[in-house]
Amino acid sequence: MSDAAGAARSVEGWLDTHCHIQPPYSPEGIDPPEVLKEAGDSGVSGLVCVGTDASTSSSALELVSGLRAMQPGFGLWATVGLHPHEASRGTDEVEELLARAVAELPGIVVAVGECGLDYHYDHSPRDVQRSAFARQIALAKEHGLALVVHARDAWDDILDLLCTEGAPERIVMHCFTGGKEEARRCLDLGAHLSFSGIVTFKGAEDVREAAAFCPEDRILVETDAPFLSPVPHRGKPNRPAWVAIVGETVAALRGVPPRDLAASSSEAAVRALGLRPL
């Protein structure tokens, strides 16, 4: 374990609200129980494993179900959703999987997502992305689940759709990349903002300003593992243990002790995602 990760062990209770540790995202040769042990040694008490299509959502549910039996002291939850990159596949399979998961795995599936709009890559046509996002907004409301939103270069359409479709009661803006103005608009909709390793990047001043601006009770922290490793680990596959680095960075920006940010962000995650039991 790195010195930076090990230093966070004195602070307990971090929650990684967004990571992908299921196949095919998990690095080859990495044993999931070892991932959880490393996370626990770094002060992490739980994580949310996020799906991006029917296959990875199913893998997340299966992994979390199995790990819960092996690691009863560690909080584990999953989501079911269709990423905007995959929107052209349609939502039918995700809808069927979600209905089964809600019925058969109560307390494990906590959100619809990640879903949203990505106009940076446009891997799916924009009108198809908007249709898939609108449907998943409806699914979150139908099932009483949180909505985990991916927003990249599409703030106006994201916020317009949330308004016109009717925003769910609980929204998490995953891997928040906006500035103070985007933060204000999301907060006005009742959303929570989840900050990732981007907050440690040299060129992310807008994101750091948003982290300092956001009310304490609306801040979550995440890794988005295996992506977006925080400084000083850029270029390496990310891991849930490093959410402590993200949290410590946000705490420093806000001028609060890391233990306070760990407690407040975890309490906010419980509310935003309806996590139970811890």
Can you offer a commentary on this structure?
By secondary structure, the chain is an alpha/beta fold. Helix content is 43%, strand content 16%. The chain has 10 helices and 8 strands. It has helices at residues 3-7, 32-41, 54-70, 92-104, 126-143, 155-165, 180-188, 205-213, 243-254, 258-273, and strands spanning 14-19, 44-49, 75-80, 109-118, 146-152, 171-173, 192-195, 219-221. The protein has an 8-stranded parallel β-sheet with strand order 1-2-3-4-5-6-7-8. Helix 5 links the parallel strand 4 (109-118) and strand 5 (146-152). The protein starts with a helix and ends in a 5-residue tail after the last helix.
In short, what is this structure?
By secondary structure, the chain is α/β, with parallel strands linked by helices. It has helices at residues 3-7, 32-41, 54-70, 92-104, 126-143, 155-165, 180-188, 205-213, 243-254, 258-273, and strands spanning 14-19, 44-49, 75-80, 109-118, 146-152, 171-173, 192-195, 219-221.
Main features:
278 residues; alpha/beta; TIM Barrel; eight-stranded parallel beta sheet; 16% strand; globular; disordered N terminus
Structural class: alpha/beta
Please give the largest β-sheet: 8 strands, parallel
Look at the structure and name the CATH superfamily. Answer: Metal-dependent hydrolases
Per DSSP E runs of 2 or more residues, the count of β-strands stands at 8
User: What's the Cα radius of gyration?
Assistant: 17 Å
General shape? globular
- Proportion of residues in extended strands: 15-25%
The CATH C-level name is Alpha Beta
What would the average pLDDT be, to the nearest integer?
Answer: 94
The CATH architecture can be named as Alpha-Beta Barrel
Number of helices: 10
Kindly give the count of domains.
1
CATH topology: TIM Barrel
Helix content: 40-55%
Distance between the termini: 25 Å
Uncertain parts: 1-8
